[in-house]
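Good day; I would like, with your permission, to put a structural problem before you. What I wish to show you is a protein chain and, alongside it, a tokenised description of its three-dimensional fold. Please examine both parts with care and let me know of anything in them that strikes you as inconsistent. Thank you for your consideration; the sequence and its tokens are set out here:

***
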Amino acid sequence: MELELKEYFSVIRKRIRMIVVIILISCVVTSLLSFYVIKPVYVANSKLIVNKSSIASEKDYLNPDSVRSNLLLVNTYKEIIKSPAIMDKVLDLNSDLGLTSQQLIKKVQVSSVNETQVISVSIEDGSQARAIRIVNSIADVFKAQIPLIMKVDNVMILNEAKVDENPEPVRPKPLINLIIAFVVSFVVSVGLAFLLEYLDDTIKTEQDVDNYLGLPVLVTINKTTKDNFKKHRLDKNMKQVGETEYASVSQ
């Protein structure tokens, strides 16, 4: 059965309580999870630059081939950073982290902007101070170890991660989570309302009788509640009492 636009709004209005309850439950649960259950995660970022060697001449530095070779080295350096050769050294300097080299490798994110010689190293952790300590330690160890590994001294620390007095966690984002929860719960609840309406094949109105059976409606019976029965019984009892009193007075 194809519903017209007015019937769409009629279905939503009929199931509005269910829709509101689903949205409220979803938003409340999302708020509780975002503020009290999910632990905040902070990110610290340090940047390295693949530059000329300390013994290279200015002529070599300005040479396009030299720049191109540095760009090609960036991808190699990204892999070296996320290797046990670097992470083991970092863990030796930070023995209190309680991590293995493989666990630390999974926490490290290394990226670079296309056609640049800048490498960005980032760490996510539940403590901002701990994340800063780890990422700065990785940058220092990599800068110190690269001359031993590649036999070239062409890495410099562009900037280190610094402590933020008012750090904002990268996740969770309570406001964004609430918006997503509201939109998703609204779509789901409205879809559920139309599904229930589609599955409901009971005949409830005169229009349903005409649509499904093609017969005229001869009699309608109004819906009666328990309160109506109570009111009718009360009126009947009051009437009986009145008649008795009237009879007693007549004597």
Remarks:
- The radius of gyration is 37 Å.
